Amino acid sequence: MKKKLFFDVDGTIYDSSKRFVEIYNEEYNQAADWRKVNKWDFSDICPLLKNHDAERYFSLPEFYNKEMDYQDVHISSIISYLYKVDGYDIHFITIGSEDNLLFKRKLLEWHFPYIPKTNYHLLEKTDMGKGEIDMTGGILIDDNYINLLTSNADLKICMHRVTEWNKDVERSGFKRLSDGLKLYNYIKALERDGKFNG
Fold first, then answer.
1. What pLDDT digit, counting tens, does each position of 140-149 carry?
2. What is the pLDDT of residues 155-173, one digit of tens each?
């Protein structure tokens, strides 16, 4: 059986925080620094946000477009290598509104055309948590503590710096890694040590 890897999208594959702040700065003529975001609702660096701005931004056609950067320079090639060379069964799992998921899906299809569409798990909802997807025998790679906590994946990895939305990951025994290259080396070490065999 192929070993399964479940990749979150926002904050794990794509740098959604950066794109969000770029749109905010353009709309409000501000100079907020996306590298300083610490709160999930961006209220710490985007004080001019209105009630539904965050939800609206994530549903804009121009959010998930060519301006969207990867979370780190390695993640795209690492996903490709894990799938094409190492034979891992790669899945994408993400939460959002109907429009958000539509645009996100198109971006994923553009960047990762080799991943089967049956491996897309697009959860149309607003609350965190990915417990409805069976990840038994796999690894979840996510930036959100609640998503990691509610998953039944065998192993859970946080791919982000410490923020308000993931500060408790180490306390729950989850691994934190900073980029795709470290992720690849960690997964291969687990496999080599017999700790992840699918």
1. 999 999 999 9
2. 999 999 989 889 989 989 9
pLDDT at 66: 85
Strand, coil or helix: 18: helix
**Boundaries of every domain in the chain:** 4-15+69-192, 16-58
Cα-flanking dihedrals φ and ψ of residue 41, to 5°? -95, 5
User: pLDDT value at position 89?
Assistant: 97
Summarised one tens digit per residue, pLDDT across range 76-95 is 999 999 999 999 999 999 99
Q: Could you give the angle at the alpha carbon of 65 between the alpha carbons of 81 and 109, nearest 5°?
A: 45
DSSP string, 37-79: --STT-TTT-TT--TTHHHHHHT-TTTSSTTPPBSSTTHHHHH
C-alpha neighbours within 13 Å on the C-beta side of residue 77: 6
pTM (whole model) above 0.90: yes
Q: Could you count the other beta carbons within 10 Å of the beta carbon of residue 180?
A: 24
Whole-angstrom distance, CA of residue 8 vs CA of residue 191: 21
What is the DSSP pairing of strand 4-7 with strand 89-96?
parallel
CATH of 4-15+69-192, one of 2.40.40.20, 3.40.50.1000, 3.40.190.10, 1.20.1440.230: 3.40.50.1000
